[in-house]
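Hi L.,

As promised, Emp24/gp25L/p24 family/GOLD-domain-containing protein:
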Amino acid sequence: MIERIIFTLIFLLHLSILAHGSALTTAIAANERLCFYADVDKAGEKIGFYFAVQSGGSFDIDFDVKDPNEKVLLDGERERQGDYVFTANTVGEYSFCFENDMSTLTEKLIDFDIMVESEPRREAPAKAGQISEHTSALEESIFRLNGMLMNIKRTQKHFHTRDNRGFSIVQSTQNRLFWYAIFESLAMVGMAIFQVYVLQTFFTKTGRRYKV
């Protein structure tokens, strides 16, 4: 029993070492291009790339992903969010760039995650419930738990994005209502002043006077 617990801890530590990533939130000003980089130590590693526009404008952004040879692997225009996994066939530095070129004034807030994972992918069993020859029941449970945790993480990201976008829409609506109320009040004051001026002009004699 103790040996199984020790093996579980070692296996989980092994998984945490093999996969490393960074989850960040950044603001991109209008007409700004911002790039982030991730190093790949050996060919065949898996790279996970997730992003979602949390606030700003129509919640869209341009992006592109390039390998160390400046070859475009992924790109998109006016994308609201994306979740990609691809294999790094070249060793070196990969670039992940966002560009807020379509906006002239609006700043965009982006939540993104870049993960470089060198964990070997286990082949799926031929039949449901069948365990691979070199995989124990404990490893099978850990892989299933890892998959469930990844699904929960993606669900959390989805609800986090919806919450931020909803808050941004509410805040934008409040600002518009505030300025509309200010404009309406100024218009009413202007109309009142104009009406007083018209009435004063109407009842004031401005014609020529002649002496007899």
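Strands lie at 19-28, 33-40, 45-55, 61-66, 72-79, 81-88, 92-99, 108-117.

Thanks again for sending the construct details.

K.
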